[in-house]
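Please decode residue identities from the backbone states below.
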């Protein structure tokens, strides 16, 4: 019920944006949620797996470029994020290939239709 008030949403938004730990919690929860949804292999799981891998690669690169910056994951966190990104991308590609979803279209191989 309290979420129906616009001032409470604005206050929560301000707290999340101005708190480095709030942004970290939000980012981590979104990455965990995307990974969990990709693992279910429901519709769109390949896109989620790919985007999660790219996000980890991006965040790992940023952490390696700015290891001493406030809120950075540091050098070790950057390396781990790069490995996580590569792992997500590799697992997504392997599972999509195993499921036969990366093979070419078979519509062109149907042969000629005689009338």
């Amino acid at each position: 019920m309290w979420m129906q008030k616009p001032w409470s949403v604005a206050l929560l938004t301000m707290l999340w944006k101005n708190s480095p730990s709030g942004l970290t919690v939000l980012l981590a929860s979104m990455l965990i949620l995307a990974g969990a949804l990709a693992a279910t292999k429901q519709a769109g799981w390949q896109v989620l797996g790919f985007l999660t891998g790219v996000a980890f690669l991006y965040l790992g690169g940023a952490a390696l470029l700015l290891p001493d910056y406030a809120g950075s994951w540091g050098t070790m966190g950057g390396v781990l994020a790069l490995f996580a990104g590569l792992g997500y991308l590799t697992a997504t590609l392997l599972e999509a290939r195993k499921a036969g979803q990366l093979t070419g279209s078979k519509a062109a191989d149907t042969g000629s239709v005689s009338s």
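Observation: The first helix runs from residue 6 to 18.
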